[in-house]
Amino acid sequence: MSEETGLPPELEAPPEEVKAVLADDMHIATGTREPILEAAGVTMQFGGLRALNDVTMSLKEGEVIGLIGPNGAGKTTFFNCLTGLYTPTSGAVTLRGEQMPQDPSRVTEAGVARTFQNIRLFPSMTARENVLVGRHVRMKQGPISSLLHGPRFRRSEAEAKDRAEKLLAFVGLSRFADELARNLPYGDQRRLEIARALATDPSVLLLDEPTAGMNAQETEATRQLIFAIRDLGVSVVVIEHDTKFIFTLCDRVLVLVQGELLVEGSPDEVRGDPRVIEAYLGAPPEEIEAQLHTGANPASDTVEGES
Ligand SMILES: Nc1ncnc2c1ncn2[C@@H]1O[C@H](COP(=O)(O)OP(=O)(O)O)[C@@H](O)[C@H]1O
Ligand SMILES: [Mg+2]
Hints:
Elements: H1 16-26, E1 35-46, E2 49-60, E3 64-68, H2 75-82, E4 90-95, E5 98-99, H3 104-110, E6 112-114, H4 127-135, H5 143-148, H6 151-170, H7 186-198, E7 204-208, H8 216-231, E8 235-239, H9 243-249, E9 252-257, E10 260-265, H10 267-272, H11 274-280, H12 285-294
Parallel strand pairs: 3-8, 3-9, 6-7, 7-8
Antiparallel strand pairs: 1-2, 1-4, 4-5, 9-10
Magnesium ion (MG) binds at residues 75-76, 117, 307.
């Protein structure tokens, strides 16, 4: 147990030397603070249901944005629009000013990775293999060379394995490298999914409820992990219900209610905004205010929906 963070060693933030090596490998950081991922007036209509109405977001390089809002507000739908899973009914999504491809695998290649509200690992593959799957997006390997197992193939395989080890160390899962994903504790599966997403060398990482189902220690460890990811130069958008988690993690917070952006601002601005207190949860204002300040999870009765 660390004296500083109170976390057991396996949940400690990534060691500095692992961070340094990864940052070197991924060489993402530019430090320009330019907008990298932008959504302009995104509307998503499903038949008679308008799940998103005119939502605009601008994520800057090196920034961590939090996206909060009640169940069914459209948060996951927004991620699906950003990553080419859905084509917005209207509006535009751009990455460094270029239109986002309308195809999830090309979105990944372009440098946007995500995790899912419902964990999507390969349960019968080991932790290491799950990370390698993410890595293959980045392997410039022609089919012939793969077939012949030539030197180029062997070299890129070796590099992929090396990176997988580093990523497992980064998320604190080295000890589970050879374990089947389905045997990992739930919180570790979520961390493994993050490692797999990072294996694609993203400039932008979208996390859909990364702490769902986690205990307080695992949640704190995830907060530290996301700070470390930001330090690698990756820009992050996080969906979460846990307001304390979001307010202590993010540079900026967006509140989505019934498909519309209700409020956007710094954690302090959002925390104190009467519209958030009133509309976000629909409970008596005093009660919600108390929850927002103590960080109790006002949506703890949430059950995971399919998304
Ligand atoms: N593919 C879809 N077809 C029809 N309705 C959908 C689809 N995806 C999401 N929705 C609806 O859009 C609304 C927003 O859902 P979602 O984005 O999952 O909310 P959140 O992630 O904020 O809980 C919900 O009413 C949901 O039922
Ligand atoms: Mg959702």
